[in-house]
Amino acid sequence: MTGSAPAMEHSISTFDYQISRRSLLLLGGATFAASVGMSASSAPPFEANRIRAVTFDAFAIFDLRPLWEACESAFPEKGSMLSAAWRSRQFEYQWLSALAGKYQDFWETTRNALIFAARSTGVSLSDGARDALLRTYLRMAVWPDVATVLSQLRAAGKQVLILSNATEAILEDSLRANGLHGAVDHILSTDKISSFKPDPKAYQLAVDRTGYRREEILFVASAGWDAAGSRWFGYPTFWNNRLSAPLEELEVAADASGSTLLDLTPLLHLEFLR
After folding, report:
1. pTM of the entire predicted model
2. Which residues contact 59 (CB under 8 A, 6 or more apart)?
C-alpha cells in the first residue's frame, strides 16, 4: 500500500486520547521546536479582538467514538483493548516515521497500527473486518455543536479552517457527508508537507494560507499534545477537551479550554445560539 492508492487508501487522522508514550512526544516536540528556535514562552499574549481566523483540528469537528464502539461490537470483550492498542500505535508510527525521515501517510500508518494492535491483543482480524473498521474514517460524523459554531464564526467575519493530519480528501468527504463543506473556508492537510503535527511546518500551513500573523489565528485543538504543539508554535490556543482528559505534563498549556465548542463564546466575545 502506498500513499497514492485510490478510494479507501486515504490518509487518516487520530482522535483525542491521552499519549501512551510521553517520552516520544517530548522528544518529537523538542526536536521540531528546536528546528525553528521555539519555546513555550514564544506564544504572544492572547487578544480576542485580534483573532481573524479560527483553525480547528479535525477531531474538534469529527466524532470518532463510533469507531471505538465498532471495535467492541466486532470483538466483544477484546474491543476496548484493541482500540486502545490501535490508538497508541497510531501516534507512535506517525511520529516515528516523521522523526526518522521515513514518512508514511495516515492511512498507511493507521492500517499498520491496527494490524499490530490485533496481533498484540490476540484478536483474529480478517481482511474484511480490518477494512470495515478502517472505512469508518471515510464518513465521519460531526459533534452536535459543530454546525452552530461554524455558522456563527463565519457570520462574525472569521475565516474558518481545518488543519489536520488527515488528507484533504477524507476531510472533504466527511464534511460533505454532513452538509458542512461550505461551512469551512480552507481545508489543510499536513500530508502536503509529508509530516505531522506537532512539526512547526504543519502549523505554518494556516499562516501561509491566510496570510495572517500567528497571533491572529486561534487554534482549536482536540488533544492535549496538539494544544501544546500549537502553543509552542505561537498560536493562541483553545483546547476542546471533550473527554475530560488530564493536562499533559509538557510545561505549556492552552490559553483556554472547554468540553464543547460553545465554550468559545466568552473567549471570542461572540454571541452563539445555545
Report:
1. 0.82
2. 13, 14, 15, 16, 164, 222, 223
pLDDT digits (tens, 9 = 90+) for 19-62: 444 444 444 444 444 343 333 334 444 788 899 999 999 999 99
What's the chain's Rg over C-alpha atoms? 18
Q: Is 131 a catalytic residue?
A: no
Nearest to 264 by CA among 236, 238, 245, 242: 238
Task: Return d(Cα 258, Cα 62) in angstroms, integer.
Answer: 16
pLDDT at position 271: 62
Compute the distance between CA of residue 151 and CA of residue 142 in angstroms, rounded to an integer. Answer: 14
Upstream peptide bond of 66 is cis (omega within 30 degrees of 0)? no
CATH architecture of the domain with residue range 37-63+142-268: 3-Layer(aba) Sandwich (3.40)
Mean pLDDT of 224-238: 97
CA 39 to chain centre: 21
| 3-class secondary structure, 80 | helix
Q: Can you give the residue ranges of every domain in the chain? A: 37-63+142-268
Which is catalytic among the residues 16, 57, 191, 199? 57
Q: How far apart are CA 203 and CA 198, in angstroms?
A: 8
